[in-house]
């Protein structure tokens, strides 16, 4: 079995690799080529939850199980809020062939979900990005945004101003090659003002931006909410959106209050949620049709992303002789 930590993965796998893997995962899902039951969630003490996410792709001869635990108060103690491991299994023998840092795999594939959506749904010419939330998922979100479109500036907001400032300073250095000016914003309104690309990746239970202030032509990726009773998206954006598209319509409509609460309130219907990003990739659902359209992308994360990403990481690690072999 190959053991791969974050540093190992960083040596062999880029943001673009992750975006490509996630597009493959979404396409294979819509083509019915990945078996992945909806995840099992066990609520725990301390506001925590244990998530078990299995997937199997016969075409790749690979299966995986990700165990990811969401403990929102960890951040206050300097701990990760979503510790995880991914187990990769050889689909021909059933042997476990790799165990890898699932926290980083999650960050990569979750950022790549936004990157894939921006690749496929955003206007060609975008100038400003906005990122709301600067926790554990934020770095790969920002990297994927910058990988997808060439931006002049990214405005960043978090209710914790110190965390936001530290994040921006770190990202200015780490993502300098993209050439965007990354600056903290004083408010969510200032952050999204005039933004062409918006990502929300918070643990908030309430909307984190004002949907009436999103400009025409923007593409918004809502990443943070996976529970029916929580939401970070302002429902005011939904009637303004020309299209609402999900990573997986089935998963999003069973999990996220971003859509379930506005549906229950009669603001939109299930039919207004047009489909999945894999449908856009397959050409069965149109993507952006004009530069004026506001497009909302809702991503809750599916196990297929973990499987295809983990398999791609494993293949590259084996090819380059990276990682520790555990007999
Ligand atoms: N869609 C997916 O595939 C996917 C994958 C992993 C995690 N998530 C979810 O994404 C969310 C963020 O994950 P994380 O690991 O970065 O969390 P985290 O706890 O590390 O960080 C969350 C950040 O959000 C900020 N925040 C909270 N409320 C806010 C508000 N109203 N306005 C601005 N900022 C606010 C917090 O201050 C914190 O910095 C979590 O809810 C997690 O469950 C989604």
Provide structural commentary:
- The protein folds into 2 domains: 2-105 and 304-325, ornithine cyclodeaminase, domain 1 (2-Layer Sandwich), CATH 3.30.1780; 118-301, Rossmann fold.
- With 327 residues, it is of the alpha/beta class.
- It is globular.
- The protein has an 8-stranded parallel β-sheet.
- Strand 5 (84-90) and strand 6 form a beta hairpin.
- 35% of the residues lie in helices and 23% in strands.
- The longest helix has 20 residues, at 102-121.
- Nicotinamide-adenine-dinucleotide binds next to helix 3.
Summary tags:
alpha/beta, 7-stranded mixed sheet, 8-stranded parallel sheet, ornithine cyclodeaminase, domain 1, Rossmann fold, binds nicotinamide-adenine-dinucleotide, 327 residues, 2 domains
Quickly describe the structure.
By secondary structure, the chain is α/β, with parallel strands linked by helices. Helix content is 35%, strand content 23%.
């Amino acid at each position: 079995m190959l053991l791969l930590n974050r540093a190992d993965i960083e040596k062999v796998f880029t943001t673009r690799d992750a975006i490509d893997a996630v597009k493959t995962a979404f396409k294979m899902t819509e083509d019915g080529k990945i078996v992945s039951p909806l995840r099992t969630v066990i609520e725990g003490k301390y506001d925590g939850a244990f998530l078990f996410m299995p997937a199997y792709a016969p075409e790749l001869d690979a299966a995986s199980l990700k165990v990811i635990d969401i403990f929102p108060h960890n951040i206050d103690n300097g701990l990760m809020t979503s510790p995880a491991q991914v187990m990769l299994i050889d689909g021909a023998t059933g042997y476990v062939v790799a165990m890898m840092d699932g926290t980083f795999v999650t960050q990569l594939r979750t950022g790549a979900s936004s990157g894939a959506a921006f690749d496929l749904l955003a206007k060609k010419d975008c100038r400003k990005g906005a990122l709301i939330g600067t926790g554990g998922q934020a770095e790969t979100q920002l990297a994927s945004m910058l990988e997808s479109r060439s931006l002049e500036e990214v405005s960043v907001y978090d209710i914790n101003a110190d965390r936001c400032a530290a994040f921006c300073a770190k990202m200015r250095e780490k993502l300098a090659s993209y050439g965007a000016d990354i600056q903290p914003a004083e408010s969510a309104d200032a952050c999204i003002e005039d933004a062409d690309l918006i990502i929300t990746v918070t643990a908030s239970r309430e909307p984190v931006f004002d949907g009436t202030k999103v400009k025409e032509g923007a593409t918004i990726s809502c990443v943070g909410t996976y529970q029916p009773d929580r939401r970070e998206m302002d429902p005011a954006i939904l009637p303004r959106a020309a299209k609402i598209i999900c990573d997986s319509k089935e998963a999003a409509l069973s999990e996220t209050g971003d859509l379930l609460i506005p549906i229950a309130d009669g603001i939109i219907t299930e039919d207004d949620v047009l489909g999945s990003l894999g449908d856009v990739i397959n050409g069965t659902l149109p993507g952006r049709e004009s530069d004026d359209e506001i497009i909302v992308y809702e991503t809750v994360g599916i196990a297929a992303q973990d499987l295809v990403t983990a398999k791609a990481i494993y293949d590259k690690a084996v090819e380059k002789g990276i990682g520790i072999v555990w007999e």
